């Protein structure tokens, strides 16, 4: 396959002259900043936030580079992964003309962003073992297919998609393959970020919301070739990551050891939770998970969900999602939270085996 990024871009994006912010127009340090119409007197707060933040988040990207080994020129930071997803549609998909491939059951924001941008979604369901239907995807692709989204480990099923199948898409598809690795920290499998130089049509999405425990800050990451990242930066708002988020993330990224400890604890609790639930005769199947949640097929899922809600325990009802019929998605909590969940599940089913 001969990949040509220019052939994928929308014509208006090729011609787009991005907004040039005040902080883009000079390099280095300055003692008097009178360029951006800020309030020079400071902020009505203990920390001064009266200056606009670094529009390209250089310090944060440098720290991410040291952790993940991905050069800063291959990193885009967004207001959650959702911003990166939306930019992909706006950059590469012509409204009312182009289409993307989704592989349900999968993360719902791909379809939401497609609908917002008036882009057709062609759905090729995963197989019964929650793997890619390569032949089905090939049949669905046409000359106007610009993106294929693959979530791995997948949400809501929790399993990883076979690497060789994703590589098959990357080699044979002329558009972009977007691999969403929001849950990669909980998997033993390597990240596709190591393969950016091999596959010019690869975009990898990750987040600080899961393993890093920074969901409230809304910081997502996209990794791709420098040319694709340049497109992201061309389209994004000039100051899309605020100063407070950048400061907190910089401090948090110094705590790799703590995060790795949490990941180990989550994986350990995940296995305990899966074993305990599997022991119930009312539980039909627990999907092996590489994420921080498990998908459990069980009897009376909606009634159990409502019962748990009444006890102040919230899980996710996926029982009406195709291929997830009869399933609840349960996030792995602390040991105490998992015990509380199991106790209430046992009460609901009238079991004493947990």
UniProtKB/TrEMBL annotation:
It comes from the Bacteria. Its EC number is 2.6.1.9. It holds the Pfam family Aminotran_1_2. It catalyses: L-histidinol phosphate + 2-oxoglutarate = 3-(imidazol-4-yl)-2-oxopropyl phosphate + L-glutamate. Keywords: Amino-acid biosynthesis, Aminotransferase, Histidine biosynthesis, Pyridoxal phosphate, Transferase. The keyword Amino-acid biosynthesis applies. Pathway: Lipid metabolism; Amino-acid biosynthesis; L-histidine biosynthesis; L-histidine from 5-phospho-alpha-D-ribose 1-diphosphate: step 7/9. Residues 47-342 form the Aminotransferase class I/classII large domain. One of its GO terms (biological process) is L-histidine biosynthetic process. It is an enzyme of class 2 (transferase). The keyword Transport does not apply. Homodimer. Belongs to the class-II pyridoxal-phosphate-dependent aminotransferase family. Histidinol-phosphate aminotransferase subfamily. This is Histidinol-phosphate aminotransferase. It comes from Sphingobacterium wenxiniae. The lineage of its organism: Bacteria, Pseudomonadati, Bacteroidota, Sphingobacteriia, Sphingobacteriales. The gene is hisC.
